[in-house]
Specification:
alpha+beta, 6-stranded antiparallel β-sheet, 4-stranded antiparallel β-sheet, 12 strands, about 15% helix, about 35% strand, globular, binds N-(carboxycarbonyl)-S-(naphthalen-2-ylmethyl)-L-cysteine, binds fe (iii) ion
């Protein structure tokens, strides 16, 4: 098993109290900016539900992937919770705060195909991801789709940093172990991704 350089896993970075507090903060974000299933360019609904906090939010429809200044309702995205910003400041080694906090919710059977994160304008900044709730089988390769891949189990409270060469690596979520974690009352998995979109 080999992972690309610049990838760091902070195993159990958040204890259960911090995970619970962050889940409550994210629930408040999702009340102000409700989760939705984005549609791909090909009109297929993604199995993961999403919303965002921060200056910009990630969005997709028949016109493709992009960042938008507003939730589909027309409201601005809520601010990024302090509990989330604290993690970025602890692990990113980046001077500026992120301008997007994408919140992904994986219900039973949800997954995410292998892809690169290329919709940003700051590939030298790292991406930080926080996992909450049910464990996920995360799979990561290299910068070419044909590169060999390695799998990592991401558990509630784990934080990963993708900097340097790993920033443009292919990655995805093959499956989650629905119901395995007691953190979220209805089960499932939340992944928070922090990104610098514009510098
Ligand atoms: C590796 N989310 O939202 S987070 C995504 O678990 C996304 O929800 C997955 O991929 C999830 O785009 C994986 C881990 C992650 C995020 C960004 C990366 C890994 C990355 C960017 C570059 C390389
Ligand atoms: Fe991604």
């Amino acid at each position: 098993m080999s992972l690309p350089a610049g990838f760091t896993l902070h195993d159990a970075h958040l204890d259960v109290a911090a995970q619970t507090a962050m889940a409550a903060d994210l629930r408040a974000v999702a009340e102000a900016a409700p989760m939705f299933h984005p549609e791909t360019r090909w009109g297929k609904q993604m199995s993961v539900k999403m919303t965002s906090a921060g200056r910009v939010g990630w969005f997709s429809d028949h016109r493709g992937y992009r960042y938008e200044m507003q939730h589909p309702s027309g409201a601005p995205w809520p601010p990024i919770p302090d509990s989330v910003l604290t993690v970025w400041r602890d692990v990113s080694a980046w001077d500026d705060d992120p301008d997007c906090c994408l919140i992904n919710y994986y219900g039973e059977g949800a997954k995410m195909g292998q892809h690169q994160d290329k919709d940003e304008n700051a590939f030298d900044a790292p991406v930080v991801s926080i996992s909450l709730g049910d464990p996920a089988r995360f799979r990561m390769g290299g910068t070419e789709r044909s590169d060999k891949t390695a799998s990592v189990e991401l558990k509630s409270g784990d934080v990963i940093v993708m900097g340097g060469p790993s920033r443009l690596a292919y990655h995805g979520v093959d499956r989650i172990e629905f119901g395995a974690s007691p953190l979220l009352p209805k089960g499932g998995r939340i992944n928070v991704t922090l990104r610098v979109v514009n510098r």
